[in-house]
């Protein structure tokens, strides 16, 4: 459980790692975030995560200071040093240090090993509650460090005994704060395709569902979500997790649905043998 | 020109100041920003800045760890240590350190003395060029650390030989990246009142203009801006600065207008005697 941080070429203890206060991630919110986990000591879907990391860097116009092979070596060193079969890895790439709080000559890259904060096992049966929030993320297709709305809403989420927030805007839902949303209508699996971050577990789930269900990637109205047979969310740490309450509305049967369970079993099988 | 940073109770050299990488400002973009300058060694409009700082903290739900009187003492110490009559002071308040990258027990407050980066004197005559960008800030009324769009657009601003970016959405303009916008139509001074951060220099300018011009705080369409007699921007470091180009459009006479000059003279007079 000793975690470490790679910072611009060096690996040290995560507790000691620091950045100077002129970092543009801190001063200007100018930073990229990515996050994945290992199963059996191996990074899950590394190629897909790397692809997304590079895409986010390009869209944020942050120069990427590390090649894929080198990054993989760092990740494997961090996993080994953690002493854990399963750990999480966080990438943070910022605009770097700046003398005038705007311009910078080189980015700062942090790669951090962390504990995984798993979902409580009973939530895979009962599902989670989310609160609805009228909002769509700025640059939704980019995984930036901008989670301020989720942070601001912490008190509301706790007060409602909920686990997360569901973003919706102009009658359409998009995503939770850090995960994607799917619904089942009969045998059709539907998930939004715009105004979202295209999660790696979303992609994994779509691949697993193929051949089993009819699949639609398209806008989902809030009403459609409320009337869906089953609703679930996907993320690196949640895998396939039922959503059974939105504010005071009960979704579907109020517990995990049969088809959600089927997909959860498929993904559990996949990661077991990763 | 030696600058310093107050960090949770201690003052040290700004070059040495750092935060641990578990800071939520860095990891989650969860941070407040405020900024003011001194004239003749005295913080300009301190009461108004403090009011805004407290308001931003409240809206971001960040607990404010310092009282006004104590903060003023820190600011005066930083000014004295800088050895400069005129310097800038930056407040950064973040969500604090977090073990799970979400929850935190106490915020981190940084108060930093900095050099002022003044506008080039000739720009008060020629005015500046801005590029138009279809966007409205998220939580515009809060001065957060979220400047990622401005950072992403740096290359475009430079390529266009412009100084800044003008945000507009659905036909209405709002603000530049870090400053407010005013236009003159005849003897009427107009400035947007929604989707903006209400700047302290905006407030100062409105107070100075009273009695001299008819004043309207209301939405301004993009077309209205392009057809205005005079356009200018206001900020702590810019004071009253003409805008004379938006992309390829020349605004007004293409140089500082008579009424803008009048307001610039008024504010220059005010700060001279501050």
How would you describe this protein?
Chains A, B: One of its GO terms (molecular function) is branched-chain-amino-acid transaminase activity. Chains A, B: InterPro entries: Aminotrans_IV, Aminotransferase-like, BCAT-like_C, BCAT-like_N, Class-IV_PLP-Dep_Aminotrnsfr. Chains A, B: Its EC number is 2.6.1.42. Chains A, B: Keywords: Aminotransferase, Pyridoxal phosphate, Transferase. The first copy, chain A, is α+β, with helices and mostly antiparallel strands. Chain A folds into two domains: 4-114, D-amino Acid Aminotransferase, Chain A, domain 1, CATH 3.30.470.10; 123-272, D-amino Acid Aminotransferase, subunit A, domain 2 (D-amino Acid Aminotransferase, Chain A, domain 2, Alpha-Beta Barrel), CATH 3.20.10.10. The first copy, chain A, contains nine helices and 17 strands. Chain A has helices spanning 24-28, 46-59, 68-82, 123-126, 148-152, 154-159, 200-209, 222-226, 258-272, and strands at 4-7, 10-13, 18-20, 31-39, 42-43, 88-94, 108-114, 128-134, 164-169, 172-176, 180-185, 188-191, 214-217, 220-221, 230-235, 239-246, 249-250. In chain A, strands 8, 9, 10, 11, 12, 13, 14, 15, 16 and 17 form a ten-stranded mixed beta sheet that branches. In chain A, strands 2-1-7-6-4-5 form a six-stranded antiparallel beta sheet. The two termini of chain A are 22 Å apart. The mean pLDDT of chain A is 96. β3 of chain A pairs antiparallel with β3 of chain B.
């Amino acid at each position: 459980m000793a975690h470490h941080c790679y910072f611009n070429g060096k690996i040290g203890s995560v507790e000691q790692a620091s950045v100077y206060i002129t970092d543009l991630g801190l001063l200007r919110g100018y930073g990229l975030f990515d996050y994945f986990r290992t199963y059996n000591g191996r990074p899950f879907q590394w190629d897909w995560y790397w692809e997304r990391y590079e895409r986010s860097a390009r869209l944020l116009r942050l120069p990427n200071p590390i090649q894929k092979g080198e990054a993989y070596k760092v990740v494997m060193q961090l996993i080994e040093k953690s002493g854990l079969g399963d750990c999480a890895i966080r990438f943070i790439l910022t605009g770097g240090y700046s003398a005038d709080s705007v311009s910078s000559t080189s980015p700062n890259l942090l790669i951090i090993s962390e504990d995984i904060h798993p979902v409580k096992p009973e939530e895979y049966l009962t599902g989670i509650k989310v609160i609805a929030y009228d909002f769509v993320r700025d640059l939704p297709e980019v995984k930036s460090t901008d989670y301020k709305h989720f942070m601001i809403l912490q008190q509301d989420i706790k007060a409602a005994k909920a686990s997360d927030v569901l973003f919706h805007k102009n009658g359409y839902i998009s995503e939770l704060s850090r995960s994607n949303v799917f619904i089942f209508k009969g045998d059709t699996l539907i998930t939004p395709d715009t105004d979202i971050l295209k999660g790696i577990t979303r992609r994994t789930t779509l691949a697993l569902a193929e051949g089993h269900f009819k699949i639609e990637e398209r806008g989902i109205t809030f009403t459609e979500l409320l009337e869906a047979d089953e609703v679930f969310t996907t993320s690196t740490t949640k895998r396939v997790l039922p959503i059974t309450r939105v504010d005071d509305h009960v979704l579907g049967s109020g517990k995990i649905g049969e088809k959600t369970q089927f997909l959860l079993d498929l993904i559990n099988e996949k990661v077991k043998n990763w």
